[in-house]
TrEMBL record:
EC primary class: transferase
Residue ranges crossing the lipid bilayer per the database entry: 6-31, 52-82, 88-114, 134-165, 171-189
Entry EC number(s): 2.3.1.275
Molecular function GO terms recorded: acyl-phosphate glycerol-3-phosphate acyltransferase activity
Reaction catalyzed: an acyl phosphate + sn-glycerol 3-phosphate = a 1-acyl-sn-glycero-3-phosphate + phosphate
Record's function text: Catalyzes the transfer of an acyl group from acyl-phosphate (acyl-PO(4)) to glycerol-3-phosphate (G3P) to form lysophosphatidic acid (LPA). This enzyme utilizes acyl-phosphate as fatty acyl donor, but not acyl-CoA or acyl-ACP.
Domain of life: Bacteria
Membrane topology designation: Multi-pass membrane protein
Pathway(s) this gene product operates in, as recorded in its UniProt entry: Lipid metabolism; phospholipid metabolism
Organism: Ruminiclostridium cellulolyticum (strain ATCC 35319 / DSM 5812 / JCM 6584 / H10)
Record-given protein name: Glycerol-3-phosphate acyltransferase
């Protein structure tokens, strides 16, 4: 195994274990609640807001964003810290690998029986690190969709779907587009239940309790 492969493996491991620190589950435990047993059952910010309130949700927002940012930064540091002549080296790839690993860790956390959240906040933090201008555009898409429909899930899904499309339009490069597509697929796939509820009209709107 070459030096570049070892560094990529290290980035994957660190990113995954950081991502596995699922903030909503940790915050829920502080409140004496397993967030996965309430509301939608999703270990994420929206369910935390519905179940535990605004203060708990703010803590989740901070934690989920922080671990995405840290995974991205650490990934880039590891890849660039020890110079090598690998032809596979691409600027920013360490951050992208670390970010994707953190999202995977959030969705399937090793510390919590591989049952996590949907990774939207962590995904957003990674997107901002990859291309903050595109990230702000996607945030605007999310806000507009949620404001019109009041469906957080729909805003998340459409914003994620727009990421690789926006990256391609901006000409961010093949590797960037590939990673944006992986990120998008990871996020949208975790919304399978939401998509079904949106289609049959039973999805909960923001501010509502989870529908039966």
């Amino acid at each position: 195994m070459g030096l570049f492969s070892i560094k990529i493996l290290l980035v994957l491991i660190i990113g995954y274990f950081l991502g596995s620190l699922n903030t909503s589950i940790i915050v829920g435990s502080i409140y004496g609640t397993d967030i996965r047993k309430h509301g939608s059952g999703n270990a994420g910010m929206t369910n935390t807001l519905r179940t535990l309130g605004k203060t708990a949700a703010i803590l989740v927002i901070f934690g989920d964003i922080l671990k995405g940012v840290l995974s991205y930064i650490i990934g880039n540091i590891i890849i660039t810290a020890i110079p090598d002549s690998s032809t596979l080296y691409i600027s920013g790839i360490g951050g992208m690998v670390g970010g994707i690993a953190a999202i995977a860790g959030h969705n399937w956390p090793v510390y919590f029986g591989f049952k996590g959240g949907k990774g939207i906040l962590t995904s957003f933090s990674v997107v901002m690190m990859m291309d903050w201008k595109l990230g702000l555009i996607l945030l605007a898409v999310f806000v507009v969709i949620v404001a019109i429909t009041r469906f957080v899930s729909l805003g998340s899904i459409l914003a994620c779907a727009a990421f690789p499309i926006g990256a391609a339009i901006k000409g961010n490069g093949t590797v960037f587009i590939l990673f944006s597509a992986i990120l998008s697929i990871l996020a949208i796939a975790r919304h399978n239940g939401n998509i079904k509820r949106l289609l049959n009209g039973t999805e909960s709107k923001i501010g509502e309790k989870k529908r039966a």
